[in-house]
Amino acid sequence: MSSFLYTVSSFFILDNKGERVISKYYNNDFDNLQKQRAFEKKVFDKTSKVNFGGEITLLDNYLIVYKAFSNIIIYMIGDSDQNEIALLYVLNSFVDTLQNLFENSQINKKLILDGINYTLLTLDEIIDGGVIMESDSTVVADRVGIKLPENDDLEESINKTVTSVKEQFFSFLR
Amino acid sequence: MGKFGKKDDDESEFLFENLDKGQVVQEKRAFNESPIHPRKCSLVISQFLYLLSRGDTFTKKEATDIFFAATKLFQSKDIPLRRLMYLLLKELSSISDDAIIVISSLTKDMTHKIELYRANAIRILCKITDSSILPQIERYFKQSIVEKDPHVSSAALVSSIHLLKVSPEIVKRWGNEVQEAISNKSNMVQYHALALLHRIKQHDRLAVIKLVSNLIKNSLRSPYAQSYLIRCCVEIIEESNTEDRIFREYIESCLRSKNDMVAYEAARSICSFKNVSAKEINSAVGVLQNFLNSTKPTLRFAAVRTLNKLAQTNPTAVVPCNLDMENLITDSNRSIATLAITTLLKVGNESNVERLIKQIANFLGDINDEFKIVVVDAITSLSQKFPKKHKHLIIFLNKILRDEGSLQLKQATLDAILTVVNNIPESKEIALTELCDYIEDCDFQDLTVQILHLIGQEGPLTSSPAQYMRYIYNRVLLDSGIIRAAAVTSIAKFGLLYEPMRDKVIILLQRCLLDEDDEVRDRAILYLRLFKEDDIHYLSKILMDDVPVPTVNMQKSLEVYLHNGDFSEPFDIATVSTVVETAQSPMIGDGKSPFATGSKKSESNVTSPKASGSAANDQEGPESYGTKLSAIPQFSGYGKLLKSSEFIELTETETEYVVNCVKHVFKEHIVFQFNVTNTLNEQQLDNVSVKMVPSDPKLLKYECSIPIDALPYGEPQPCYVAIRYNPANGYPLCSFSNTLKFKVREIDPSTNQPEEQGYDDQYSLERMEIVPKDFLNRAYVGNFVEEWKAISEDNQLVQTFSLVGVKTIDEAVKQIVKTLGMATAEKSEVVQPKAMKHILYLSGKSLSNQLIYVRARMKLDQSQTNTDVELTIKSDSEELNEFVISAFN
User: Fold this and answer.
1) Which CATH code for domain B776-888?
2) ipTM for the complex?
3) Where does it mainly reside (chain B) (predicted)?
């Protein structure tokens, strides 16, 4: 059995024509762009059929867990003997975090691309080399949507104060 | 938030989708501006990241340039920009040169008070270090692992997991820190620490057992850690045969977890165990049963997939879920529905299978062809389990055949029907009736032809053959040429196999004489003539016998025959290879297994449900060897190649040098072709030859040896040894001890060229024999039984012997066929399952084209551990009979 640890073998978002929006491969199963595209096409062909039903399937020894939105589908791919529910959890973390960051706007292609920095950072915070880094979407959203610390940079403000004091001092001397 | 500046909505989508790499690469200069504009730089980084994730490739130079430009941003104090910069550096670190340069900036960040800096810096550090640098920055990892902040600690732990592949020795030193991290308050840290610790100790089984037993008692909170721990327990139980119950108990306790992932991991683990108590499996199945009724497709899928697997090993355990799975047959997710059906069919029993089929039939209209094929396959396997239900199965399959559908689906369905008919003779009549109905309205020419073939084959043998004639003749009246031709043949078969109809058949055939299609007329004329001459023997030969060789090979051989233009001898079908040849030459092989060059595909196609398995001998086409050997000057005077043996392995396939041999027999010579493969990439072999020492030197004379000049790694080449024998003194049946001789030259790794100096070496090979089979060819006879009777018993030789240790008739048949290398006749190679006795017919011929007939009567002896054989050989030469029998000495 493959390891539980390397939960995700690849991740991609395809648009409603099956074209790649973004993708990330965590191992060398598909080691060049052609193979990746061919795989994505196969996955899309199987999962985009209207009468297929949604969320999960098995294809060529990969588990495919996915979620369809108005004009994109988000895919989380794992080895065939991976825990299906673990994959679903990762996908949910990703989607929930985006909802959180985009303040519950409808997820669609435009939103993903306009906020590409958030999309990619979210992915980076959730998965590291196939390993789940963090699953709690509020924690992930915090790490991506970085609030500025209260005293942004103490040194700088001190420096500024010192400078202005100096200036005042010198002008006083004059 | 989430927008770059005040760009218009359409424009921004446009901006990203049509990004041009060249243009964006130029924009990296934004990083050099002073002061840094965080928003502008963020946009540029986002563009780079987007291009990378879209699949655009950057050259090493481009990547390096961007990487270095981005390092300028370490000066910025804008946290969102820094976060993006880290991601960009991480992504580029593997393509860019000299990424090591940022180590000092990163180690500086490791002491920064902002956690986000430390967490991300360490993730990049792990990507750019190797074993030589790691010791210098080791302390940052150790520090970070024990940090309280979960972001930093998790980042350090996950990075260490990756580093374990690069520098395992160093990471293993951090065991204490990792142990400490397990008690971190964060769930994720706990999980990562457990995984790393387990991996560090992986090769020390006792340490793993100790670690796992401790953690079981510690009651971990993280669901991921629990799932991981379950896998560890499974591993321990499977590998160490431990008597300790705690591992099983832990898994069982996880079944009650509120977290679906954990409960499922526990359930599927229990289902995978080889030894499992009824209590354990019942509680596991109970969890899965709950999942079957979940609203979440993934849970239903997970459960039904696990049950499907379990149904193979333990069908009774799955039965309690039958009702729940029946509800899933109409699941909107097709994968779930498929799994449910196949599982149900696996655990189905005589009483519910009928209802099940009805249920599936009800929703057939809603599903696509691809899925219907899955159903058809499942139904086919069902027919083997419940032969009594054949009627329902056939009707069901016919329904699919008649509904709308692709040719692929219809072909699969027809194949399924043929399989059922073959396995369950009682199903024949109902299947034929249904199929007759179907061809009245069938859109696919191919299928109609196949069905007509089947009706012709089986129809005459049913209780009332006459009923089918109307359907067949309708095709003659209504369909296209190719179908009419098939129908004519089918009609003729009725005349042949069912005598009462012969007159009627002749009338029908006469009506076809004016057909506009040549093929139809030709067939009708031929059959009519044979009927009128009452030549039943020949008629049966052309109507009922399958072509005993692959049609492709037949075509090739015929083309060669015509091309050669020598028609003094008639074309002999025995010279056609039975092996389906692939494009690659069998002479050289692919270096792995010589058999890989010719996949042993039986010539049976869908039109002949009773596959004739006469491809009993893996003989390569002599014509391809013949041409190649005659091109070698030393052998050009040996005359026509009479017979080539199959490959004989003289080494194990996993050894340094792999050698197999083919024996080529000529009128007075035998050429041994040794295919040699050098599997050592650090060596080249020169002057490679095989030394053969015969057990009886008087029988033969050494002729010549052709060595291989140079044999590099991985390219198989042949070397040859030729001997001469005098056929007047009998064939040289003896054995040889063989030694591979060669000169080794080491490959210089710096130049990849072999060194000047080498040394002589040798390698012993397996012994090899010359056996009677090497001088016997296959021959095909139309009607073995008649030919057999025609030869007087004066010309026969009978011998009885026992095949010791051969416990089944099937095995005995295979052994006899293999020993004699002759063709099987009358489909006698097909043995009824569990048969206690059997008669096998073989036909062959000597190298001088004398026909040989062999009848082998065999039966299992009382102990059922040996097979007794009575072998009768008929030919026109006593000597030849003796020679054949000697194959069993």
Assistant:
1) 3.30.310.10
2) 0.85
3) cytoplasm
